[in-house]
Specification:
4-stranded antiparallel β-sheet, membrane
């Protein structure tokens, strides 16, 4: 599971903004929402006849593979870098 998300915004003619977000405290604060999302996913799996255990297992594998991912987004002269550790 990812531990830290780093967001850096490079703006033209200004200093870059860097934000470090620890994942665990954010997940703990948003835990009620996470529970509702998981329940909605289970209901969707039952409605569309998808194996619940396989779908949740696949979601967990995607989340576990996130550490080390980097996303670079550029729009005009502004750039955003998101690094997941």
């Amino acid at each position: 599971m990812p531990q830290l998300v780093t967001v850096r915004v490079n703006r033209p003619d200004r200093r870059p903004i860097r934000v470090w977000v620890p994942v665990l405290p954010v997940v703990l604060v948003l835990f009620p929402v996470v529970v509702l999302v998981v329940l909605a996913a289970i209901v969707a799996c039952v409605v569309f006849r998808i194996g619940v255990v396989r779908a949740l297992g696949a979601a967990w594998r995607v989340i576990s593979a996130l550490p080390g991912a980097r996303f670079d987004i550029e729009q005009g002269r502004t750039a955003v870098l998101v690094a997941i550790r």
